[in-house]
Each structure stands twice: as structure tokens, then as C-alpha cells.
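Morning - aspartic acid inputs below, output right after.
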Amino acid sequence: MYRTHTCGELRLTDVKTTVTLAGWVQTVRKFGSITFVDLRDRYGITQLLFSEALNGELDANPLGREFVLQVNGSVNERSSKNANIPTGDIEINVVSFKILNKSAVPPFSIQDDTDGGDELRMKYRFLDLRRNIVKKNLELRYAVGRSARNYLHENNFLDIETPFLIKSTPEGARDFVVPSRMNSGQFYALPQSPQTFKQLLMVSGYDRYYQIVKCFRDEDLRADRQPEFTQIDCEMCFVEQEDILQTFEGLVKRIFKDVKNIDYSETIQRMTWEEAMWNYGNDKPDIRFDIAICNLKFPSHTFPTKENQSALIDGASFGVFDDAETVVAIAIPGCSEYTRKQTDELTEWVKRPQIGMKGLVFIKCNADGTFKSSVDKFYNEEKLKAIATAANAKAGDLILILAGAEERTRKAISDLRMYMADKLGLRKPTDFKLLWVLDFPLFEYDEEGNRWVARHHPFTSPKPTQIAEMINNNPVIENAAEYLKHPYANIKANAYDMVLNGNEIGGGSIRIFQRELQEKMFAALGMDAAEQQHKFGFLLGAFEYGAPPHGGIAFGFDRLCSILGGSESIRDFIAFPKNNSGRDVMIDAPSTIDAKQFEELQIKLDLKA
Ligand code: ASP
């Protein structure tokens, strides 16, 4: 037997028992004639004491960091106890030991605050995984997965595997493709998500499906994206949006309870996409703090439902506001006494290329009810007061105003809102606030591709009240660069996102299940009948055989884990992640393949091209 106990379990109650432990040498410390060793395994660290009698043997077989060691001995009470670790009251008085394997000197120290940089730890990920901090993250990941499985199982969901080698139908992101040797010249694609398969399972009558599943997207890697990532993927039939929202509120609340022991009993707030964009400048607002945007001016095509408040700023001959497409303000609580230096710093911050604003206007709402602003020349006290009232500012607040092109300015005010909240400590990682964002636009204009795309995916149903509008209209796709040029630009999707602390953690939709509507949708995206048939003939065909109404959702499992773990980075919660260039630097992938493999695949590689 290699071990009788783990390195994390012995206590004072075990004193005098004879035990065998096996693990890795964390540290070796010599004190005169005796030697202390910290032995580590997955469960903890236990102190070993090698007495003088073993010195000869230790000299013949010196121990080094990360050696794999087996020891036999008795449990003793320690004279100087270590309250920081659960085994800190005892140590093992070693009687005999055996080196099971040696170790090269590790390239970084295997400790919580390691001296290893990112790339080095990635290269030796198997060593990095020995660190307690990384292990804790993987344990949390396992706990989240287990909790989700338990909940879904108890609610009658079936875990059904769907294939990884599928057909390439790039819609959102680029597909990873896999050449087929047996079908020369043809390729599989790795799934971006099991979307069509889970819908087919609904047609098959498996009314509650889930899978914790890998998805693959060949996207340019923005920070903290992985080319392969994991989703908790779910689908249900005979459901409306409300059924889905309730079922998956249950899932997330259960995970909070199981993993964090948090009773999330409050009602989860809901807001429409338009409200989110109006009030927070983005579609995944962090609502742990209630600073909302005051829309002073914006182009009429942006969100057709809102009135401009430009009367408040017009007629003052202030060119910056007059010439801007959009003017937006936020009131920052308790910051009216910001010094010149502080407001200058904020101005510099919004001028950074990532934010891209030309400047920042501020109004101080002084505690005594007076106002002082950077635009006093243009706006008298009365006008400043009117703006402050519109911005919901109280005495003591600092109003920050940005002006510029719509999209950039709205994004900038949203970033500034988050930046100020961080500064004021309003975004505590231990606070959790969930939110549903509903009623997304069905379509979205893709500048890069110069075309209209489905905002969620092309299987998403319009709002029930707008289905007739879609079926009865004959869409004409123009080369529309403006929002309203698409005949369906105002159609809202029966789609929802779950947002946690400013991160989208899940998203889904009620699906189209009628062939006719699905064809309309494909056509609206510019796909002719032949292309529809080639790419999605299987789905259109299936819809003819009794497809039930259905809908679903997928949660970003890695992201959910990282937020619950209080970390910004999903990489920390993936055992073997890729780096920012999509490389696994440990196994050195991707890599070239042999000439023979190319030959078998009948692929000619022209490296000159
Ligand atoms: N397949 C979708 C996604 O990956 C989720 C869903 O609609 O269920 O985002």
C-alpha cells in the first residue's frame, strides 16, 4: 500500500498511530541534526521530522524539491504548532522513507505566490496545477459542474452527447475544420455549439436536454477568450420564454447555494435590451451600483423609442455639444469635491485611445446647492441645474459628460461608469447581482462583412407579435449601412441573456420551429434557397416532421466559474488553457503535420502562398 492517509487528514486525535504517506517534497529544512520536510499532496501538507538516526540514509539519498517521497512513521504532537494549516498540530516522526521518484529542479516555486511568470507556468502547466491556488479553482469548477448536473437531473433533463465532427455552416464565428481522409477534399467542422443538434433532439421528443460540452470558435482571440471553451448547454420543448427564465434562475440560484453557500432569494431584475443600452450604454450592465446614463442627445435612428433631451444643452453655442451626435452624462455620487488634478486625470483617462474621447465636461453639484462646471462660460447656474436634475444628481455629486459619435460615446460612458465604480469600490467581487436582459434586436449590422446577421443566431424566433410581420413581408436586402434600412431592423428577438456583475454568463432564445419562418429568416440574412438547402437542409427537413415549440439557453461555464471564484481570468479555471495566440505552449500545438499525413488527406500545402 502506497499510503494509509493523505497529507491533509491527520490531526491530534491520530497521535501515536503508525502511518504511511506519499507525496511531493515542498520544502526541506535542516536544523542541526534533524531535518524537517513539508510533504504535499492534493489534500494538504504534512510536516515530516527526520531524526538524527536517519542522517546517514538522507546523505546517501538526498531529498530535493518535488521529489516523490513515501514515508512510514508515527504521528506526534508538534512542539511548535502551525495554526495556518489543518495538520499544523502534528508531525510525522519518520521511521523509514523511500524516494519513489526524483525531480528536476522545478522552473518556478510551487507556491501560491509563485515566482513563475505566465508563459513559464503555461509551459509547465502540470507543475502549475500542483499549486494550491490553481487546484482550488479546479475544485470550484468541479463543484459548479456537479451542482448544475444535480439540478438539471432533478428537473428531468437528460445529458445527451452530440457529435464533435459536424458540418461547416459558419454563421457567427469562423469554424475550425478537420479534413476527412476517407472523403477526400471534404471537411468536418468542430461545433461552435451543439445548437442544431439540440434542436433536433427536441424534434425527437427529448423534451429536456443538457450537456456540459466543449465548443470551438476560430475567432481572433481577444483577451481572455479561448478557442475551445465549455458551455452548460440546455434545450426544452413546449416552453415559452418565461418557462426558460424561471427554470434557469433556479439553476443559477442552486449553483450559488451549492458552491458559495449564498441564498440568492431576491427577484432577479429584468430589463429590455433598449433599456440596458439607454441607461447603461451596453447590453450587460453591472447593476451592483445604480449610476444610470442621462441621454442628453442622440441620433434618432439609434433607439427609436426615446425622446431627445437636447433642449437642455441646445442654444448655448457650445460647439462640442452642438456638433456631437451624442451627448451623455452620469452623476457620480459624492465626488463634487474632486480637485483640478482629479478631474484632469479623468479627462486624460477618457482621451486614452481605448476610450477615444476628445475630452470630458464636468459639473460639480456643490453641497451648498451651487454648481461649478468646466462649461460655465456657456451654461449659467439655471441651465446647469436643469442638466443636474435630468441626470438625477444630488448635492455632492460630480456629473461627467461625454460628447461624440453615437457608438463610441455610448461605449465610452459605459466604460467610464465602470471605471468610476471601480474607483469608488462599488464593484465588490463578493457581491453578486444577476440580471436578465430581454428583447434583443433580431438582426444586427455587421460592419466588417457589410451585411446583416442574426444577433443571436438564425434559429432565434422573433417576438410572437412580430412573427406575422416577418412571414408576410418580403424582405429586400439592400446594401444597408444604416440601421433602419433593413426591412426587419425593428424586429425584436425572443432572446434573453443572463448577466452577472457586468458579464454575460448565459444566453439563449425561443427558436423558430416552422419551416416557413425559418426560410424567411435565412432569406433575410441573404441566403438563397440553394444555400439554405446546402447548409441547413437537414433542419428545414426536420421541421416538416412535427417539430414542437422549443427554446433553450447556454451558459459560459468557464466564465461562470471565474466570476464565482472572484477572478477576472477564465484561464485560471481551465486545466490546460491556450495562450492569447491560441497556442498550447506545453504540448506545442498547433504544429505542422507529416508529409505522409498530408498525402493521406490528399491535401497539398503551398507554403509559398
Ligand atoms: N447556442 C447558443 C450559443 O452558443 C446558445 C443558445 O441559443 O442556446 O450562444
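Note: Residues 441-492+514-547 form one domain.

O.
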